[in-house]
Amino acid sequence: MAWIQTISEEEATGKVKEQFEEAKRRAGWVWNVIKVSSIKPELMWASMAVYLATVQRPSGLSRDQKEMIATVVSNMNECHYCTEAHAYDLHHQGKMDLPMVESIKRDYRTADIDEKTKAMLEFSEKLTRTPNRMRKEDVEGLRKAGLSDEDILETVHIAAMFNYLNRVVESLGVDLEDFMPPSEA
């Protein structure tokens, strides 16, 4: 499961059980990334609150765009678990065909996506690789590409959240879900 103690679904009580039940309602199962924080329910709830407020809530960004940010950021961070989890969501939640999902994973720059989405992913890449080099011009570039200030804020939060989650997953050895291919590394 992970390199630290976790609470199983069978052992869960109180807030942990509530979170697990909510996860099952959303996805049909409890993802391992949720279980890894189960011994500190307040951390599990806080992480899920940010995820739900950004990825799951309707907004100016489409679900596909949100999942592409998650996939691209996770791939840049070499987080196999999150890359595969959000590529899965792109296909199953966003109904994107598998060749397109693989194209996004391989290199979003060459994928057949619109310029607005490409600009958003380029911004997310810069934020991931060199956050200290972000400038007002980066935000202005997103505005020129058609993103509202709310869309820009959400893009930042999604990219930042996945940088955070990638580090949680990688540092605690979160096991792959059964459907995920093994890492090539």
What's the short story on this structure?
Helix content is 64%, strand content 0%. The chain has nine helices and no strands. The longest helix is centred in the C-terminal third of the chain and has 24 residues.
Report on the architecture of this protein:
By secondary structure, the protein is mainly alpha-helical. It has helices at residues 14-27, 32-35, 41-56, 63-76, 80-92, 98-107, 115-129, 136-144, 149-172. The protein has 2 domains: 14-56, no CATH class; 63-172, AhpD-like, CATH 1.20.1290.10. Helix 3 packs antiparallel against helix 9. 32% of the residues are buried. The mean pLDDT is 95.
Q: How far apart are the termini?
A: 19 Å
Low-confidence segments: none
Shape: globular
- The CATH architecture assignment of the largest domain turns out to be Up-down Bundle
The overall number of domains is 2
CATH H-level superfamily title of the largest domain = AhpD-like
How many individual helices? 9
Provide the CATH top-level class of the largest domain: Mainly Alpha
Number of strands: 0
H/E series, N to C?
HHHHHHHHH
Question: How are the SSEs placed, and which strands pair?
Answer:
Elements: H1 14-27, H2 32-35, H3 41-56, H4 63-76, H5 80-92, H6 98-107, H7 115-129, H8 136-144, H9 149-172
Short descriptors:
mainly alpha, single chain, AhpD-like, 185 residues
